[in-house]
Amino acid sequence: TYFICQAARQNVTVALSGDAGDELFGGYNRYFWGKRIWNKLAWLPTPARRLLGRGISLFPVSTWDAINHILPSHYQTTNLGDKAYKMANRLERVDNLEDLYQNLLMIWQEGNDLVKHSNKLPTILDDANIIKKISESEHRMMLWDSLIYLPDDILTKVDRAAMSVSLETRAPFLDHRIAELAWRMPLQMKIRNGEGKWALRQVLYKYVPRDLIERPKAGFGVPVGEWLRGPLRDWAEDLINEKRLQSEGYLNSTLIRATWQQHLSGRHDWSHHLWAVLMFQAWLDKVN
């Protein structure tokens, strides 16, 4: 995001952002894949789901990525290995569709085990009154994302990246009239035939060639997992040194060190888990 903003700033001082399009018009894969996957798995008894999740975890990420390459092109997906491991984790832990969504938001499922002396604090996700009048699970997910993920993650990220290069951004989708229109629209105008943002696509097709639009959704991910095994290894090792974690007393050193060793072995990609811990440790290092 920073590099895109930097490139845009060479020509303009204000740029339009597409942020909120996904949350308002059903663009994230979890909105249509989550329910589809859950419907296929819900009939399985809980022990069977747990067993299936553990079975997926038996194969390393590299094996799943290799399988992805031999699949027919229409079945291939980016980062299959990483996604397989995330799905395995969810199969072992979720009991309903709402559980699945909350699981998607959490990095450390062992949150209460990770932080020492922690008691789970209530969040907006625990307030059932917010969604009690919304019958569709997809719309419930979209509302939660609009209240949490959008302001606390997406908009924060873009604002910081843009302002760091003196670029102002505007988010037209957050005009209250567009947001109100989106929430009045029925779900089938947003998600149709396993495809998100249906209504927006119909407008876009009038102005932009389809081959520029009909491509797999891709984020701005970087190979943090590989970096942690390579050039960032010493930096990370210093921040999550076992003695250091124990002396600070905030985090479960045993759990973190086990996760770190699994990541280094290449059998698991725990880059998201480790990065969250490393950022806390780096911040702690700075304020101390």
Strand order, largest beta sheet: 1-2
The major beta sheet can be summarized as: 2 strands, parallel
Let me know the number of strands. Answer: 2
Task: Give Rg in angstroms.
Answer: 21 Å
Q: Give the rounded overall mean pLDDT.
A: 87
Please, how many helices?
16
> Helix and strand succession?
HEHHHHHHHHEHHHHHHH
Task: Please mark out the parts with pLDDT under 50 across 5 or more consecutive residues, or reply none.
Answer: none
Structural class, please?
mainly alpha
Give the % helix.
Answer: 55-70%
- What shape does the CA trace take? globular
N-C termini distance: 30 Å
- Beta-strand share of residues: under 5%
What does this protein look like?
This protein is mainly α and 288 residues long. It is 58% helix and 2% strand. It has 16 helices and 2 strands. The protein has a two-stranded parallel sheet with strand order 1-2. The protein is globular, with a radius of gyration of 21 Å. The mean pLDDT is 87.
